[in-house]
Amino acid sequence: MAVPALQLEHVSKVIGGLTILEDISLTVQPGERRAIIGPNGAGKTTLLNVIAGFLPATRGRVLVFGRDVTKLPAHRRVDVGLLKTNQQPAVFHELTTRQNILIALLRGRHSPLGLGGLVERDREIQRLAEQVLEEWGLLDVSDVEVRHLPHGYQRRVELAARFALRPKLLLLDEPAAGLAVDEIPAFIERLKQLPRDMTVVLVEHSMRVVFSFADRITVLHHGAVLADGTPDEIQQNEDVQAAYLAGAMRGRDAGAA
Amino acid sequence: MNAKSISAQWRPAAILGLLVLLLIAPFVLPTYPLSVLTEILIFTLFAMSLNILLGYAGLPSLGHSAFFGTGGYAVGLLAKYLGTPAPLALLIAVVAGIALALITGPFVLRTHGAYFLILTLSLTQVLFGIVWLWRRVTGGDDGLPGIPTPKLPFLLGRVSDTANFYYLTLIVVGIAIATIAWVVRSPFGLALVGIRENERYLEGLGYPTWTLKYVAYALAGGYGALAGGLFAYFKGFVGPGQISWLLAGEGMVMVILGGAGTFWGPAIGTILVLLLRYEVSAFTQRWVMILGIVFILTVLLLPQGIVRLPNRIREIRAQLRREAPLPRPTAPAHHTPSERAVERVIERS
Ligand SMILES: Nc1ncnc2c1ncn2[C@@H]1O[C@H](COP(=O)(O)OP(=O)(O)OP(=O)(O)O)[C@@H](O)[C@H]1O
Ligand SMILES: [Mg+2]
């Protein structure tokens, strides 16, 4: 059997005496699209931060492509192919769209310290940036400071910068939140076009996005795994219905209508 | 965008023009203004080195005089006890500054915002105390006088001593500034801005942010010490005043006044502060008060510093032509690098 893309073994996270995550174990296969759902405060964001290395796990192990990364700082986990987007788009507000892309590209190509030549004279990197901007429909706003862009664009800049680094395991924290209802179908399309050799872990409240994208779904509740299965299994699961899903779906549909 | 590319087009010509002016200055300026100009060059280097931390990386250091003083005392001690020639002494000054940064970095760089400010300030105070108390070696509050002024040999004594030292300063500062320009425009420089904007996001892209800050701190320390070494030669003297945190504060004013996080801002800030000190103090003793007023007006009206004045005027003119209300400053006040540093101070405390 192939080495799993992501393995959590009995991961717990305690912050200030409060148990936020409790004994979480899960396995994500290479190429899989895994959704993690759960009510507000269930610990989804905390879990992604533990996986990405922004928060150390209190107990348990995190393995990425078979490698134990539990003790590695966040920037070293990027070397293993792991990248994460943020609930609030992780973009540099005072830099232009192009500079945001350049920062990502330069990490991919230069030594960590990057005390190389001048950025603006690096033809190759500028050409790559131009390509990324075009691919993501960002050419029009390439020289605009990102803080002036609407939320949907900021999300696009964030994703474009992450993709420029060719992640093998991509963690997405509510990427559809803040998008307008009519932006969602296009967004789902984009998600579906992600290369199949990329493993995706998606935290999302929009059930429309989750059920049209995920191969498997993990339900978090009060920091623990409540259920784990295919979309059909999850939809049928009574515990999930009771704890979350019915309410969430009702809430979403009412909100969208 | 357009305006930017036009100014980029003129940049080489402008720099060349500035260089020519600086080269002929000794032939047109009397001795006193020439020595003020020398001091401006030295403090421009000091402010630009602080700008690497404060402006680019967003680290509000209030202890940069520690490096300035270290460079000064390195030069002073070497001159007094060993008679070391100036080029070597300046080199050792730079190494001493870098070494101080490498030693203290692991402590101060653990902190952010207000804590970083306080720790760097404390570092300066500790050095100040050592220099003050270790009278036998450092001369205590009397300092080390009688540091001989180095001379450029190839000018063949045809120019005055003031002009000779001016040229020496111009060469050293010119080279140092050129390398700073290269640093901030390299991928490293862009990464520093990423740290200022959001250190966590940058780490999420795979940058070793702590190492980057450590390198930036060491570089700033080296350049700061070089400025301090030059200043010791300029005055022929080094004393505790050159290590005092008051000097670090003045550096901060120069950087923020001119424009933190911009390349030429610190130079403009330095010119303004020193001209105010030397020109206004001829009329009134209240130059510090006038500086304070200038500072407040700048922060309120030009939050990104005086260096943005042309952009601001262009914006206002464009807006007037469209007969629309006046635009807000180019950035919301809380979004300028310096204010961000302050913001972080508030956040963390
Ligand atoms: N640094 C912290 N200190 C204390 N409690 C925290 C901290 N971070 C998160 N929590 C708590 O942990 C719980 C889980 O938070 P988390 O942000 O992971 O939830 P979430 O599932 O992502 O919620 P949402 O759907 O609202 O984004 C919440 O109750 C939150 O208040
Ligand atoms: Mg969350």
From TrEMBL, chain B:
Its main location: membrane. Pfam families: BPD_transp_2 (PF02653). The keyword RNA-binding does not apply. It is found in: Cell membrane. Keywords: Cell membrane, Membrane, Transmembrane, Transmembrane helix. It is a multi-pass membrane protein. PANTHER family: ABC TRANSPORTER ATP-BINDING PROTEIN, HIGH-AFFINITY BRANCHED-CHAIN AMINO ACID TRANSPORT SYSTEM PERMEASE. This is Branched-chain amino acid ABC transporter permease. InterPro entries: ABC_transp_permease, LivM-like. Coiled coil: none annotated. One of its GO terms (molecular function) is branched-chain amino acid transmembrane transporter activity. GO terms for cellular component: plasma membrane.
